[in-house]
Design brief:
Layout (H helix, E strand, L loop, with lengths): L7 E6 L1 H13 L5 E6 L2 H7 L4 E6 L2 E8 L4 E2 L11 H17 L2 H15 L3 H21 L14 H11 L6 H18 L5 H13 L14 H8 L12 E4 L6 E4 L4 H16 L1
Parallel strand pairs: 1-2, 2-5
Antiparallel strand pairs: 3-4, 6-7
Amino acid sequence: LGLDRKSTFVALGGGVIGDMVGFASAIYQRGVNFIQIPTTVMAMVDSSVGGKTGVNHPLGKNMIGAFHQPQCVFIDTNTLNTLPDRELKSGISEVVKYGLIRDAPFFEWQEENMTKLLERDPEATRYAIRRSCENKADVVQADELEAGVRATLNLGHTFGHAIENGSGYGTWLHGEGVSIGTAMAATMSEKMGWIDEGLKQRIYDILESADLPVKLPRESPMKVETFNKLMSLDKKVADGQLRLILLQGELGNCKFTGEFDTDAMQETIEEFVKDIEG
């Protein structure tokens, strides 16, 4: 191929392409430059920003990877004109996340403008992408290697990754798994008394307004044991202890912790699985 250490890799595509090209550039000759050109909402608002690269493994999502920052990220929202509706909605789940964990005004804006986002209104789309990138960049700048606050960007992901893996990769889009996972995190937070029922309902409402799933379908293979096994392998486990991102207090606040009510977690898992078995 004629590549050398001065070569630059270009990731043109969605999150999977960005992750794979980024990982390849991280390990090729111990690291070469690469550029991200994301073409999906998911990649634009999340995976292209921050330097996480990797590939999936049967034991877990992105289990093999590296932190490797792109030289730059080019975003052209015109590439979204041909994006399938399902992919568009999947990306919106990550947009919702930013409002929940740190940006209450952004969440409120989404409540008022979700129809515009689904209709691909250019101005609303550009604003949502820019605000999401600003939120993520602020967090990554404070904690590039995810030693603390960056983990809050994974709201709903521990449950969601278990759903993606346990259902078979490709059954769910990433954002769909995260949407159900966010609903589970909200439910668990409410069970623990960390948020009130009103906020939990707003979370369900905004996800449903984006036509995102908030529960498992009847045909889902997920069991309580499946959740527990796969969550125990999550990358946020430290010293054998599972750590979760949960919502706490007013809208826009969350907590990354291993100190939570395990009974509330089990009740939440059982509640969502019961919808399948019932």
